[in-house]
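Priority: medium. Attachment 1 of 2:
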């Protein structure tokens, strides 16, 4: 994915009151800022300067145009002067794309010895931005407000984060998610209202019989399989059982065929994410493990056991993290290390952890899989890089969706884990395991997550705001009594907000 294919419009609000000369200056200043953003290495999307808007018709026209411009993912709005905000009502009512309010000023410093009324009339963002802010709040519009000088790193960071979320939101609209089989039987949190998800979040989820996938897998040729296996040989350390003369080579060929078949199915159907279910493998020789790991590494969202909400969320996180250091994967809180000196979580899954989070070259191994009653699947086994990371999940509470995010630190393993047949990550949750796990559980957080070493809680918050859904952050500032209150207050707020 290349974010430069997405446009963010730089829109400056003003009015006619000041005369042509001032408006010309406003336009010049806007162009300068738009160009600086465009040239900044930090800004991932393409910045498009839009002529200064000075009246309600223009504003409305621009907002409608933004809605219908495919590559436009959102608007940066800036009030250099004063733009009476009733002019914005029709436009903001029509606007369906996310917007950020950049509350900045062209001049960083007050020119102490020269400042006169002309300067004041030109540089009046301090109150022009408040007028614009009022109408956003009056209309109940979710938007991010970024305050500071437009060249400051903090401002650019915040804009970058918002822009990444806007690209992910854009990518999600109309996205198709394929479910191979349905839900793991009796599991609750992976279920949910797919119609509501499509209304609120823009993506559609549809199930496919395993036979449809198996048909495509069976069409894979030996020559294609050979080519893919040589790719495996280049990318990974293969254990000797998986070499051409090894006793498990046939299982590797099966895995390669599954990958080629799944890839073709997903490409032909233009899917962005998918789910599998180990209870639903009719006609397949093994649970897709390596295939899922590699498809995730190529940007597909994934959820195991039919978990379509996590599949969509992993896709969102993959898009947001495009080009950043650090990987993103489907994840599960697997087992605990409850040493009071430092309680930690060992994260993993049966097979399906994305090698984008791997430290070093992954090993391609084969182990028995005690679940599912199929042949042993090859899988990539590796440790993750240490450093800051986060886990995020999305749940369906029946009356709304909720995102829960926990900031964590990936820490070294206590020792090598020679008998553990899966990729693994060890983390220490913030503020500590006691509070983090209790808060997560009371919030109804899932056992499946999207795990990332590329994003921050701010990315997830920005995304939730665009989607208009609840977002709970568990981090170093989380205190238990406050968190419990937030849960109760949010129940009321979202109930009221939705109405009947
Ligand atoms: Mn699972």
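Attachment 2 of 2:
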């Amino acid at each position: 994915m290349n974010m430069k294919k997405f446009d963010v419009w730089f829109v400056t609000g003003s009015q006619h009151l000041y005369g042509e000369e001032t408006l010309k200056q406003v336009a010049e200043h806007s162009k300068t800022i738009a160009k600086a953003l465009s040239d900044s290495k930090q800004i991932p999307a393409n910045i498009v300067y839009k002529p200064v808007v000075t009246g309600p018709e223009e504003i409305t026209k621009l907002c409608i145009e933004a809605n219908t411009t495919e590559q436009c993912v959102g608007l940066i709005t800036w009030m250099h002067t004063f733009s009476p905000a009733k002019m914005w009502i029709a436009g903001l009512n029509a606007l369906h794309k996310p917007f950020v309010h950049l509350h900045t000023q062209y001049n960083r410093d007050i020119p102490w010895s020269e400042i006169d009324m002309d300067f004041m009339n030109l540089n009046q963002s301090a109150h022009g931005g408040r007028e614009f802010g009022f109408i956003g709040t009056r209309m109940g519009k979710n938007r991010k407000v970024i305050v500071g000088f437009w060249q400051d790193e903090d401002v650019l960071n915040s804009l970058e984060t918002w822009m990444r979320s806007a690209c992910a939101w854009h990518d999600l609209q109309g996205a198709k998610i394929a479910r191979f089989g349905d839900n793991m039987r009796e599991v609750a949190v992976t279920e949910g209202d797919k119609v509501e998800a499509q209304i609120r979040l823009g993506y559609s989820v549809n199930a496919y019989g395993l036979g449809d996938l198996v048909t495509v897998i069976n069409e894979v040729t030996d020559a294609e399989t050979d080519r893919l296996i040589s790719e495996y040989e280049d990318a990974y350390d293969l254990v000797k059982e998986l070499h051409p003369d090894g006793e498990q080579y046939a299982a590797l060929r099966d895995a390669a065929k599954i990958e080629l078949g799944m890839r073709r199915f997903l490409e032909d159907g233009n899917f962005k994410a998918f789910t599998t279910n180990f209870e639903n493998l009719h006609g397949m020789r093994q649970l897709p493990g390596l295939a899922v790991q590699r498809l995730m590494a190529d940007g597909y969202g994934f959820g195991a056991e039919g978990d379509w909400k996590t599949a969509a969320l992993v896709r969102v996180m993959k898009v947001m993290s495009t080009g950043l250091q650090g990987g993103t994967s489907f994840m599960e809180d697997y087992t605990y290390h409850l040493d009071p000196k430092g309680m930690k979580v060992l994260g993993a899954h049966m097979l399906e952890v994305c090698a984008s989070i791997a430290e070093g070259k992954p090993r391609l191994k084969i182990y028995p899989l005690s679940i599912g009653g199929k042949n042993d699947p090859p899988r990539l086994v590796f440790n993750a890089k240490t450093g800051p990371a986060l886990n995020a999940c999305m749940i369906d509470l029946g009356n709304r969706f909720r995102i829960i995010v926990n900031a964590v630190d990936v820490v070294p393993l206590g020792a090598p884990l020679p008998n553990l047949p899966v990729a693994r990550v060890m983390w220490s949750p913030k503020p500590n395991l006691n509070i983090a796990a209790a808060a997560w559980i009371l919030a109804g957080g899932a056992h499946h997550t999207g795990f990332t070493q590329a994003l921050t809680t701010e990315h997830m918050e920005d995304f939730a705001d665009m989607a208009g859904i609840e977002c709970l952050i568990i981090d170093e500032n989380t205190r238990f009594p406050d968190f419990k209150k937030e849960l109760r207050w949010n129940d009321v707020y979202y109930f009221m907000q939705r109405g009947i």
